[in-house]
Design goal:
alpha/beta, 182 residues, Rossmann fold
Length: 182
């Protein structure tokens, strides 16, 4: 009997304007992977505003559901990876940063454990404003510090990528290749 190869899960974390989408779309082409876009970005684009504290749960649930659908599609079509840009952990991080609310952290950390690989995009890229979703380089540094605290507090396994888009893609692909050896 032929066995079906289930897709692997790749998560991206990083503050706003840290190159997550650029890296995710490049990985989707190279691996290949089903790309899961950011539900938060779709929310902001459709409403013209940032979510409230009480809408964060809906954003995270939407991101998890979008990943679930992409995973099913990848499994059916034989695509080896699903790439979440970003993963739901970022919704919990934003809830901490913007609302001082840690209530989404436990389910986000549990969900984080379903990924085969997590890439953390450094904040070393130039700041690029992007409409209603961007708060500025100072907020980006603050969010990066929250990510660092969550990664340390929960001993999450991440691969930090930095440099320009090509350097990040090379580092990400090297991390994927390292996984293939076990």
């Amino acid at each position: 009997m032929d066995s079906v190869m289930m897709p692997r899960r790749l998560a991206l974390v990083g503050a706003e304007c840290s190159g997550k989408t650029t890296l995710a779309t490049a990985l989707a082409r190279e691996l290949p992977a089903h790309y899961v876009p950011e539900v938060l970005r779709e929310f902001v684009d459709s409403t013209g505003r940032s979510p409230t504290k009480h809408e964060q749960h809906m954003i995270m649930a939407g991101q998890i559901n979008a990943e679930r659908v992409a995973y099913q599609q990848a499994a059916i079509s034989g695509v080896p990876w699903v790439c979440a840009d970003p993963c739901p952990l970022m919704t919990a991080v934003y809830s901490i940063e913007y609302f001082n609310d840690e209530s989404l952290l436990p389910p986000a950390v549990r969900h984080q454990q379903t990924y085969d690989l997590t890439l953390w995009c450094d904040v070393d890229l130039p700041w690029v404003p992007d409409g209603a979703q961007r708060d500025g380089p100072q907020r980006r540094l603050s969010v990066d510090r929250v990510i660092a605290a969550v990664v340390a507090d929960f001993d999450l396994s991440v691969v930090r990528v930095h440099g320009g888009p090509d350097e990040r893609l090379c580092a990400a692909l090297a991390a994927v290749d390292a996984m293939r050896t076990y």
